[in-house]
Amino acid sequence: MRAVCKLGRGTPAAAFALPWLLAICVSSHPVPDKTILARGASGTEVIATDSTTRQALLWTSIAVAVFVALIQSLVATMATIAEDSRAWTFRFRLALYEHWWYTWISVLLGISLILIVLSFLAGNNGDALGILVLSSATGMTIVRYAVPAWRGRGFIVNRWLAWTGASRTAIPREKALLCGDAAQWARLCVHLAQNRKGTDADLHSTSVPSDDWGWTVWPPSGIAQDATEILAKVTEKEAVPDSELVLAKNLADAAALGSTIYNDGLAPDRSTVSLQWGSTQGFRRRVSRGISSMPINLLLSRPVTVDGYSGEGLCLAMAVLARNKGLLPNTLIFDAAHALKREKNLTFPPQWKLTADLENGSTWAPRPQKALRSYNTKAMESQVGTIGADYLLAAVELALIFADCPAEATKTWLQREMAQQDIELNRLMHQKHTQGGTVTAADLNAMYRASYVSMVMSLNNMRWRRGDTAGSLRRPDLLCGGLLVYAETGQAPAWWGEAWARDRVQQEVESLAGVWRKPMAGLVGLVEWPAEMPVDCDAQS
Predict the structure, then answer these.
(1) pLDDT per position as a tens digit, 426-449
(2) For a designed S-S bond to 265, which of 164, 242, 329, 444 qualifies (C-beta 3.0 to 4.6 A apart)?
(3) Distance of CA 498 to the CA centre of its chain
(4) What is the CA 445 to chain-centroid distance, rounded?
């Protein structure tokens, strides 16, 4: 069964509207009561009205019911078509308004019910069956659709944020100087439109169904094209440093001017670099194209696995993982199974389970969804298992945390783009590296490889209270990257004691809660937190 414009597994639009249509048919063909007619009309009226008023009440009720049936069928059909055509951006946009839609439908049905009851009380005694059917339809709409829609609206919003957030994409190195802020991307689009003699449709020529924004009352703002599509239309000659299109003459200057190119500390002759782009850079929100690999049952408004388990955590985790892998996801570190420690011949308690430390020390402890760890591992293995063991472990942990994390906290985390490695910190470290500071290419590479540890810890140990907007929330990128440098060199990073690093570490510590130091150290391949890297933090951490 495919979902239509409602929560959960759905029924076709015709079946949804059937009770209303039945009520209309019954109401429009009243059956006279011979006994009552023999007694006279005055004996049948609870409310004294004339014939015109009685008929007005009846036909107004019928008109409202017909209107509801028609518009619900149209909207349900539109949602079904969006799913069948894999237009997930449009489908997820529709879902954002489901709770208001069913509230409105319930109100209209309630009005229709009141009118037909008044018609009955005024003497239209043939409306009794219509009242029964219409009251059942109204109750079903409220209980099965409106109430679940309001209860599930938190997940619907988070699904939209998770699938349409900033993306991290590989682009040719020679195109890196073209990338910048929203004004720079707009300038590129204007240049292409003026110099390619193409139309706006030409720029959309490589779009996929999931990109489709769909029907809208007001034209959406933002650049509709994929960043890679725009860059692909720029020639090599236009991308050279002397070109009028480039943001700056070199990557160091570009970073200072707002470029969102990551420096992952990889070889300078590598042919590709990593670009972060999204709504902050002026692009219109749209669902990640990675959604094409998703099973349909996890894309419903109430996602379920094939075995009937809730799939909300899996849906959100897969959305995040589709957007933030970077250039070499197989090198990402997440040593929950102690493979790195064994490789280094480190001594640690054989019964030590890092996953238990994560669960018990979490802000969301005791994390009841941990009971589904084995099931989530099998589900994730079919999606990301070929990337690497550490990547799979991180993906499973992320899905389990999402399943236990309150919707409001998840929303805050997603709105702060905590799923992505901190581009501002990366730009700062990139500048210090290129300006002869203490930051090395190995340090920058460690930041990238530890980024999944940082991501998981930022959600698992997020310092949050209900109603908190978390304006100062920071990912622990510097903490995790610094720990990985220590794990691989046996020494604290040279920059660890510098003022900028101390300030950043303090912000990261203030963004964490619960017990986080031991699991964070363990996930990068250490047995305990190194004494050479002191941090000012809560005593319980």
Answers:
(1) 999 998 998 889 999 999 999 999
(2) 444
(3) 36
(4) 27
